[in-house]
Amino acid sequence: AQTVTQSQPEMSVQEAETVTLSCTYDTSESNYYLFWYKQPPSRQMILVIRQEAYKQQNATENRFSVNFQKAAKSFSLKISDSQLGDTAMYFCAFMKQPNDMRFGAGTRLTVKP
Amino acid sequence: SQTIHQWPATLVQPVGSPLSLECTVEGTSNPNLYWYRQAAGRGLQLLFYSVGIGQISSEVPQNLSASRPQDRQFILSSKKLLLSDSGFYLCAWRPYTGTTQETQYFGPGTRLLVL
Q1: Could you read off the pLDDT of B14-65 as tens digits, one per residue?
Q2: Which residues pair with A39 in a beta bridge?
Q3: Spatial contact of A68 and A58, defined as CB atoms under 8 Å apart
Q4: Chain A contact for B105, CB < 8 A?
Q5: Which residues, 6+ apart, have CB-to-CB distance to A57 below 8 Å?
Q6: Which residue of chain A comes nearest to B106, CA vs CA?
Q7: Residue B97 neighbours by CB under 8 Å, 6+ apart
Q8: With contacts defined as CB-CB under 8 Å, which chain B residues touch A50?
């Protein structure tokens, strides 16, 4: 079974600084997909970034980037130039089969002014 | 562009009452559809998914059921609600084809409180 672990229940960062959220996963598969979703207070789940396991290059979306370490089964999210609007729960997700997405327990990020 | 709707946004129901939550997707055809539940302060748990009309797969045995009467409509139901059914219910869709077919996109959610 695939499991996703987010070891940081809560984190905080000062506005304009950089923060890294950790995620590890357990799988014996070689082909899979990884995602980071953001859930602001509105509770809408918003896709932040996705990574295909077969791609060695780390995904980047504006201020958001990942550090994908396949051998270590690690998938961390780096948020640069943090903004107040980044305050949210962040969920790491793993998917091998198209209809089997597994989520971590989440990290609550607070951006302080 | 594609949009996903859920209603109601909030629902308060007594124990033992029936439930019907609706999810519809616009702007796409033959999507895969999903129902998730999120307990307070927790991650998401997949409840049901559907790859087509009338095709439902259940991930967790429970008091709930799902139906897909139309291509872009997904309904979550219960005949008798339990206190443990309280939570935040999210519907999601995934494109049938395309470069982002591995990605699930979520609706705004329904907050259910069973008293």
Answers
A1: 999 999 999 999 999 899 999 999 987 778 999 999 999 999 998 876 789 9
A2: A89
A3: yes
A4: yes
A5: none
A6: A45
A7: none
A8: 100, 102-103
